[in-house]
Amino acid sequence: EIVLTHSPGTLSLSPGERATLSCRASQSVSSSYLAWYQQKPGQAPRLLIYGASSRATGIPDRFSGSGSGTDFTLTISRLEPEDFAVYFCQQYGSSPLTFGGGTKVEIK
Amino acid sequence: QVQLVQSGTEVKKPGASVKVSCKVSGYTLTEVSMHWVRQAPGEGLEWLGGFDVEDGETTLAQKFQGRVTMTEDIYTDTAYMEMSSLRSEDTAVYYCAARPKWELLRERGSRYFDYWGQGTLVTVSA
Questions:
Q1: Cβ-defined contacts of B15-20 (< 8 Å, 24+)
Q2: A31, closest residue in chain B (CA to CA)
Q3: In chain A, at which end, N or C, are there fewer CB atoms within 10 A of the end residue's CB?
């Protein structure tokens, strides 16, 4: 099974700053089959990015994804107050589908 | 637009079984590929299994084989996840998550999830 590791575990930033979140896979993710989700307390995850770099419907363009192979990045260009949340990556290139443990983006 | 509405909180004793439901609206159940994901308190997400459009079968993560059953009632558009032999480590919020089948067939292998239920808390405690 592919293990996904996030770094950092917590990111403390101010609104307006740039956030760079990393997701590293224990083996190559085929066809860049990697997605990113945002989760706020008490809510279900929300799909942000699929195919490593494609934004889901309705996702603002301040969110962008990049990477391939084993290293993937989610970038939030300028943090808005509603962006403070936990972010998870998911690989769907092989079974079992797996998720990372998440990066928490908190207000500094 | 798919909406998924799950059943309510469950409290179970170790060794018991639980059955969580997920009702689909906006699409019919036969039009979506339904999966189940859980999240233990303060932890990440864990995939239990779901319907694989390409195989036409339900696939379970090996960890849950023999203990989890996923069924569908197409007449009420409701999916079910039943877990048996519950233990304290199964305490978690259980989510149903779906992707329209036509999207999966258009974009092969796209097993990510556009739509999620609100979650069902299952607490296992003596």
A1: B15/B85, B15/B86, B15/B87, B16/B86, B16/B124, B17/B82, B17/B83, B17/B84, B17/B85, B17/B86, B18/B82, B18/B83, B18/B86, B18/B122, B19/B80, B19/B81, B19/B82, B20/B80, B20/B81, B20/B82, B20/B94, B20/B96, B20/B120, B20/B122
A2: B109
A3: C
Nearest CB to A101; choose among B35, B44, B112 = B44
DSSP assigned state of B15: T
Question: Which residues have C-beta within 8 Å of that of residue A60, sequence separation ≥ 6?
Answer: none
Q: What's residue A92's pLDDT?
A: 96
Task: Return the residue matching tokens 């179970």.
Answer: B12
Residue A14 corresponds to which tokens in the numbers above? 């101010």
Residue B107's SS3 state is coil
- Overall average pLDDT of the B19-30 stretch: 97
List strand residue ranges (DSSP E) for chain B, in order.
3-6, 10-12, 18-25, 32-39, 45-52, 57-60, 68-73, 78-83, 92-100, 115-116, 120-124
Q: 3-state class of B8 per DSSP?
A: coil
Look at B44 and A44 and tell me if their CB atoms are within 8 Å. Answer: no
Residues β-bridged to residue B4: B24
Please give the residue of chain A at the shortest CA–CA distance from B114: A47
Helix (H) or strand (E) run with residue A48 in it: strand A46-50
Report pLDDT digits (tens) over A23-52.
999 999 988 899 999 999 999 999 999 999
